[in-house]
Amino acid sequence: MPISPKDHTTCALLAEKGQSHTLMGALGRMAHKEGICIGELVVGPMVRFNMSLFHYAALAGRVDNLAALYEPANYLSMGTHEAVEARCRILQAPDGEGNTALHLAARRGHIPAKGHFDLARFLIMSDVGAAAGGSMPRKGADLFIVENGAGHTALHLAVLGRKLTVVGLLAHTDVQRRRNGNANWMIKHPIPIHEVRSRQGKTAGHIALEIGHLECFMLLDKISRELNAPPPQPQPQPQPQPQKVLSGGSNMGIWNEEIDYDIIEEAIAAIRNGVWTYVPKPKIF
């Protein structure tokens, strides 16, 4: 059920600038008044630009609000199947220009310092099933390769926005899963995402050259070399490590997989220092 025009401005401002407990409190009161669950308010599009609350939070880089809106408890009264469908839908829903939340995050470059719980990482991990509150099966559109209204993927928008770290995060996430032999991932993505072409027939590398962003082109080239490099030598068996729980309460969930920021940072540093023969260092556990 869409949020009424009367409540549009308040909810949009809370999603963009309000604290998560304030946002969820307002939605709870609204849902009680309408006799529905919070999830139905989250899923419904708003008036302006056909954006949902999830889009507003993504555009503003508010990860705390995204996690709160995505919390499974908001959807419990829908039933199991309907709740899963609803949580998939808010990740995949396009705004008025065809952008998903990941498109908006990539375009704005919402990635803070290494080690922080950042927006693009939240959306990527939610997409592959490590959603806050538990695992979730994949359904519908693939956030990595879905096009917006202009025919661009999230990676293309990150290149166009010159968001170098976002480019590295998206492309390396794909390569890392391929190098790890993730069969399900490779079935879903028959070609690497940095080779996916826009509606105009351009890859992310083509776009980087077209706009004169040499650093971005070189980063994509080095990530491509990493994909085609020989398998790493066997390393000593890692010692069991406790699961890493992110701060922020139950809304944040537990990461089932770590993104290797070191490789991305080393590649960017090598490009900026003029080291054209950069090869990622083998990771030693």
UniProtKB/TrEMBL annotation:
Residues 227-249 are annotated as: Disordered. SMART domains: ANK. Pfam families: Ank_2. Residues 229-241 have a biased composition (Pro residues). Keywords: ANK repeat. SUPFAM superfamilies: Ankyrin repeat (SSF48403). ANK repeats lie at residues 97-124. Transmembrane segments: none annotated. InterPro entries: Ankyrin_rpt, Ankyrin_rpt-contain_sf. Coiled coil: none annotated. This is Ankyrin. It comes from Zalerion maritima. The lineage of its organism: Eukaryota, Fungi, Dikarya, Ascomycota, Pezizomycotina.
